[in-house]
Structure formats: C-alpha cells, structure tokens
Write a structure and sequence with these properties.
alpha/beta
C-alpha cells in the first residue's frame, strides 16, 4: 500500500534517481566514492526555493553546501557550532578556494526583521536572527525598498562575519581564498554580486 503525502513523493523521487539519473552518472559517482574535493563553499538560506546546485548548475561533488535560516554566519565564538565547524572543515581540510554567501529575494528571515515581526513564540528563531543585528543597523532604507536593501546588506555582514573565523582569515591573508556575496532573485533567476561592505 502506498504511503500518501510527502514521504511517498520522496520515495518516488529516489526510485526515479536510481532508475534514470544514477546510471547516466555512474562513472562520476564511482570517482566521488573515493574523493571529496569541492572547490567552493556555498552558504545559502534554508529556504526550499533556493537550490545551490540548480542555480549554479554544479555537478555532485563540486559544492560544499551549508544552509541556514537567513544565510546567517555566526562570527567567531569560543563555543564552536555546526556552521563554524563546516566552515573550518571546508577551508582547512578540503581547501576550497572560494566561499559564496548567497541571499535571496523574499527571504522569510529578512522579512521578519524588516517588518519587526513578533517572534516571541519562536524564541530559537529570534535568538538566531540576532546574527543579523548589524545588517538591520546598517540598513537605512524605509518603505518598499527596505527588504531588498536589508537582504543585500545582510550578505555583506555575513561575509564580514566569515572573515572573523581563523581558518578563513589565514586563507585570505595567504591569498588562497576569495569571498563573494550574491543575491538570487527567485522570479527572474538573476544573480547579483553585492560584494562586501569592507571592500574585498
């Protein structure tokens, strides 16, 4: 008997992958089974509409992906977390040569901040969004332009936060790593380079 709903759809997807996709890429997966050498770390939002491999048309194995609500990157802290560990691993162990922080249009996290949403019933979300305090402080625009401006500024702030991580700072100093800020526009498919407020 078939299980209705999302689980059934996921199971059907696995079956299609094994039947139609995997055979065409069997050689690639055989190589990947013994080697993991992505060239870039892509830090994007957890939003289901933002799919890094689809946007960049990357093959399996090319991107090391971290996804967080609001594409937020905590600055260096004494207690490491999963995001910090992933950044360090990507830079120090895998040797990625580029890190992209990618925001996107219509971001729910940035919308909540732009509109001053009441997050009292979502305490963990509210605490996590504190990593965007500087983004809010640096965004002077009001009205309809506030959300797009906040989305752009937030990407720049997260790039600044990235640079506080020792592994990233060392790689930047050695000129073996580049930091890049993008904003993906969902309705048009466009990707804008927003750079860093600090100038990299």
């Amino acid at each position: 008997m078939r299980t209705p709903g999302p689980l059934h759809e996921l199971s059907d997807g696995i079956a299609r992958f094994q039947r139609e996709v995997f055979p065409a890429k069997a050689e690639l997966f055989a190589r990947l089974a013994g080697a993991h050498r992505p060239t870039a770390l892509f830090i994007g939002c957890s939003d289901a509409r933002v799919v890094p491999e689809l946007i960049t048309q990357s093959e399996p194995g090319e991107l090391f992906v971290v996804r967080t609500a609001g594409n937020l990157v905590p600055a260096r802290a004494s207690d490491p977390d999963g995001v910090t560990a992933s950044i360090e691993y990507a830079v120090s162990v895998l040797g990625v040569t580029a890190i992209v922080v990618c925001g996107h249009s219509g971001c729910g996290a940035m919308t909540a901040l732009a509109e001053g949403a009441d997050l009292s019933s979502a305490g963990s979300v509210a605490r996590w969004l504190r990593h965007a305090d500087a983004s809010v402080a640096r965004t002077a625009e009001t009205g309809p332009g506030r959300l797009p401006a906040l989305i752009r500024e937030n990407v720049r702030v997260q790039l600044d936060n990235l640079a506080t991580h020792p592994a990233v700072a060392r790689a930047l100093a050695a000129a073996t790593l580049g930091l890049h800020g993008w904003v993906y526009d969902i309705p048009s498919g466009g990707v804008s380079d927003v750079g860093r407020a600090g100038g990299l």
